[in-house]
Structures are given as structure tokens and as C-alpha cells.
């Protein structure tokens, strides 16, 4: 029996829906692990849920995740939005966003997995992000459409008098507010939500969700869009933030068109996450959407580059260098492989739910699954004529497989072309699907790290469950 892939991108099991993931490395009982704290999409018809869970992984294997269970439930039974967790001394502090982000409390625990108890009400606001500086001083960042930051007292809850800063970075407008021009608009650089502070290379880095209201043609964006995680940086924790750039965009693989514009291959949605360094490699944690709404989101991870230029500017994302000096950056690509930087093992059973390319948009989507079964697959449904499903990247090793097997069904027979390296790449196999598993020989050898695409054609409507190479 072949082994199923248990973790790729998304990094948690496909039945789990933890968006807004803040990654933190903590040491407990002599072991350092990566912990992820986020909201919990369990309501299914609305954002988030009424409890929060903790997952962690050893620093040596970011595909080996353990669930520690529920760490916090709202004091009033309300829905909990995005949290953050930091350590000071021997205590861990969870900043929980009760009342759908309208009531921020700080609870504590001696264990990074919780439970977090004894909540204390704060005056912080929406999407709190916390930074414990090298000297032990603590800073909080929060906001929705406009942002705020302040230093906290030693109790980790009280805003220190005289330190509140309003709007340390540019605003967006609230599209649901009649007074949405109250603060003015900076369309290409505007804060929306998802505050996540870090200190990197001696700089204060403010990661946030940006809302573009002007087109970004190179990424295929032509409507107001807040699918980005972006950053600004400063030499001071509460002021002086300067232009940074975009780190992540959850619109899937961006196809480069002949006219220089881009084309998305995944339905973008809201975004939230943070940065973490593991064994010398930096990663951005973010989330994507499944289903047909924003209520079943999944945590994603991509390796990124970080560099400090001679002029003091910090670059984060996919960086361009000239003569060894960083000169620009852009969002890193959205992949199926995530922390598996060498690619997903192509010889194991791979769920269609790891696709990072489903085009054209709104034709085919990943069906949200909630059944907590080890190895459960998340199928792609509503596949029609012309749908392409892509996976970047698979690892074939040094021994090429000889065949490919799909598990898929269609209401009418459909043809599937398997393409290599790009959505219009060389065809290496053809299959006809109707119901169940089907296998076809490969017409070419494949070794190493490669991208694979499945192109569907025919009059039917299909559901794609999993595939493997033999």
C-alpha cells in the first residue's frame, strides 16, 4: 500500500482550517519547536470559530505536525478572531480576540501549548500583534483599515502612558463605511489589517495585510484586493516606518502573459500571517481559501529570502541582486510544496487538495473537508472542459517513474493530458477518466524537481481526488 502525503502546502492536515497563523519558536522542556497560533475556521458559514487550537512541529521537520488541542475558549462563548502569542520570562501570553476581534484579552500559561488562563481585558484592538524586544520592552500593534501601536507595561496588558501612536503606516479606506475617506487613501501602500511585528537584522519589521485599490497588472489584479501580505520597516519600534514591499500573494501561480501582465490561477482572499526563521531559513506563513467563500481557510508556508542593503533598507520576499547587493523584491511564488523545499515526493499518493494552480478562475475549486481522518484527501470539484490543475513542485528523484495514476470521476468521459513544467508544457501522458482509478504510461522520463499539470477536456464535469507516479 502506497503512503499518502500528510503535509505539504497546506502544511496542516487537509481537514484542518487554521488561518491567520502566527509562527513562533519556543523552547519547552528542553526542546525547541515551531508553534502556530491562529483563528479556527469551524463555523463553516462565517469567519473563524469559538475555540483556538495549537499545532507544533520539530525544527528539523516542518512537515511533522502535532495538534495539542484546544488552548483557549472565549470567556463569553463568542467567536475568536486572529490571536498572537509571545514569551516573556518563563510565561507565555496569548492575546485573544474575542467578540470577533472587538474585545482583546491577554491570557497566560507556563506551557506554549496552553491552556491559556486568567484572561485580562486590554485596550488593544483588532488583530493584535506583539513584539518583545531584545531589552525586554514589549510593543503592541493593531488595527483595521487604520493602525495603532504602543508600548505595554510590565503587566503585558496596560498601554504605557504617552506611547500610543496612531497610523504609523499609511491607511486604506473601509469599503463598508460611509465615511471611508476620513483618513485619505494611499492605494498602493495602504494598511488593511493583520498586524504582525518582528525584529530582523536590527530593524523593526511591520508585516500587515495590504488592500490595493488600484490595479496591479503584473499580478493579474484589477479589482480592490487584500490578498497580500506586505511589510514596512523602521529603526524605531513605534514610528518612522519606511516603504518595504509585498511578501506574499495568495492568488496562486501567476502566469506571465505576452503583454507583460500576469494572470492569477487561484481565487485570492483575505490574508494574514507572519515571519519566522528556522535553521537559517526564513519562511512566510499565510493562508489561502478553499470552497467558494472565505470560511474554510488553510495555513500555507513558503521559504523566503531576507537581505539588508548597505543603505540600511531591508528586503523581504523574492529578492533581486545586482553584484551581490539587494536592489528589489517581489512576492514569493505560491507553491504546493511549501516547507518541502525539494518538492513533494511524486511516488507517494498526493491529494488534489495541494494544487496551487486551478484555472481558469471560478472553474474548479478545492472542496473543504472536515472529517478528521489521517490522510484524508480534499478533492477538486466542478472541473469542466479546459480546466487545468497544477502542482509546484514534485520531486521525482533519480529514477524516473513509468506511469501515472489518477483517482477521478466524471459524469461523462473526459480526457486528461499530463503536462510537465508549465500549463502549456510537454504532454507526458494521456488518460480517459470516468469513474475510479486510471493508469497510463509516461512517454518521457522525469527526474528531479518538476512542476506537473493536469489538463481536462470534454463535455462532462469531473471531480479529481488524488494522483501518484509509479
Strand share of the residues? over 45%
Categorize the overall geometry.
globular
CATH fold name of the largest domain: Tachylectin-2, Chain A
Q: How would a textbook summarize the main sheet?
A: 6 strands, mixed
CATH level-1 class of the largest domain: Mainly Beta
The residue-averaged pLDDT reads: 95
Number of helices: 1
Count the domains: 2
- Rounded Rg: 22 Å
Number of strands: 35
CATH superfamily of the largest domain: Glycosyl hydrolase domain, family 43
Distance N to C terminus: 12 Å
> Architecture of the largest domain, according to CATH?
5 Propeller
Uncertain segments are none
Helix content: under 10%
Helix/strand/pairing category: mainly beta
Structure description:
The longest helix has 4 residues, at 98-101. The two termini are 12 Å apart. The chain folds into two domains: 22-330, Glycosyl hydrolase domain, family 43 (Tachylectin-2, Chain A, 5 Propeller), CATH 2.115.10; 355-469, Sandwich (Jelly Rolls). Strands 24, 26, 29, 31, 32 and 34 form a six-stranded mixed sheet that branches. Strands 25, 27, 28, 30, 33 and 35 form a six-stranded antiparallel sheet that branches. It has a five-stranded antiparallel sheet with strand order 19-20-21-22-23, with no helix packed on it. The mean pLDDT is 95. The chain is globular and about 70 Å long. Helix content is 1%, strand content 48%. With 470 residues, the protein is mainly β.
Main attributes of the structure:
470 residues; Tachylectin-2, Chain A; Jelly Rolls; 48% strand; mainly beta; 1 helix
